[in-house]
Amino acid sequence: MSWLKGMTEKEPPEPVNPIGTVVLGTLHPDIMDTAKEMVRKSLKTAQFKTVDAGKGVSPAVFVAKVKEANADILVVTVGLSAAKENLAKLISLLETEGLKGKVQVMIGGAAVSKEDADKIGAMFGKTREDAVALAKKAIEQKNK
Q: pTM of the predicted model, to two decimals?
């Protein structure tokens, strides 16, 4: 799907019976939100309740949003190398707040790879379709 087509898609309706809650955003200092928006719309279409934390989000704000929404999944887009450096801080803060293991972390974006995800115990996806498949898998695992 082209970038333009993805950005001009209509906003999907809120799911009536969401299968899970996802908080998503771009990690500070990354402020490019095109990929995040495409993933958000795809997750919403797939019947997930989505909570948009925004762009350029600090680890502390991500953690606060996860708590506030009682999220099942945290999706972090990382488009800049400088933002990648904040992943360890985010995971550390999730652990400190007792959320590690309670919320599944998923990462994607131009500055990260599967190896980066493996290092922090996160799931990794390259496309919005990957994000939907991984989110469904995370909910299945959580409900076992």
A: 0.90
